[in-house]
Request: fold
Amino acid sequence: LLRIHNGTLTKGASVGLARHDGTIKSVRVTELLRTEGLERVSAETAAPGDIVAVAGIEDIMIGESLVDLEDPRPLPLITVDDPAISMTIGINTSPMAGRVKGAKVTARQVKDRLDRELIGNVSLKVLPTERPDAWEVQGRGELALAILVEQMRREGFELTVGKPQVVTKDIDGVRSEPMERMTIDIPEEYLGAVTQLLAARKGRMETMANHGSGWIRLEFVVPARGLIGFRTRFLTETRGTGIASSIADGYAPWQGVIEQRLTGSLVADRAGQATPYAMTNLQERGSFIVEPGSEVYEGQVVGENPRGEDMDVNICREKKQTNTRSATADVYESLTPSRRLTLEESLEFAANDECVEVTPEAIRVRKVVLDAQERFKIAARERRAQK
Reply:
């Protein structure tokens, strides 16, 4: 789609394509469609102000201009804010990979899909990593990247998605991070809760206006990494009544450590099926994010530990069968319902050594290193390095 700013565009005409690098390439308009209401009709010419669709031009990017070859005067290029958040997207490497019939699981399929996304999404960047089956995808925010992953999931892809990270820059030798200017509208009674929530994320209040109608407008400057998982907490604190929007606000020196998650994980220590008997005995240790009867594997995160440490648990334990009848049947009504995490909540929930397995049928949180012994060795090396 393009809009005519000056001159007349004719079907079949040869025009110049002004690229981002300053070069001009000769192209031909093979088809011209004019927008009328909700439909597109074929047209021979288009005048200034018309919004038209053209065909015959390959690999054209947003912000480029069609110009007269004899008198090229391209419009100013559209600038897009630099990416603020990145995450690693790769093929599914869990033991349950490839179980969904017709799922797209190869590295070539994932890379081709990311390349197609770059054509229409100018705020996205795809960079190679040390692994040939994983790529670093950078975008404007956590929500934009989560939307991409959700689209790929619905298209039948199986992915392993890393925890979102901030994209930093060195400005005059100082490590700097992207900042966001956030505008919030909330009822008066939630002022304290929202202010405390953003203060823990290094947010700095700029203005506060009371409209006298029971609502308050707040304006904060907060690091982009402080907004990872913010919207879920924000809607919970405001009972779904708050309205928040943000826009890029440049870079600032590193704001310090932001605590994202103070709790640990309950990790399955073996493959099998989660049983109500095991979950009933373990629910005093924490809350679960998997349903009874669901299949799990070693290294999968099955719940949250209130303490700030990981705990390996046997969630597949079954009750031993004996020839002695019990006076009362097994009662599982006391089992607390499991918490079902969405994709955005899973990305927020994952710790630094965890990632999210995304398939067309399920979303699971897992450890990057599945083997418990290997995780113990890595943790021991990190402790020695800190000393």
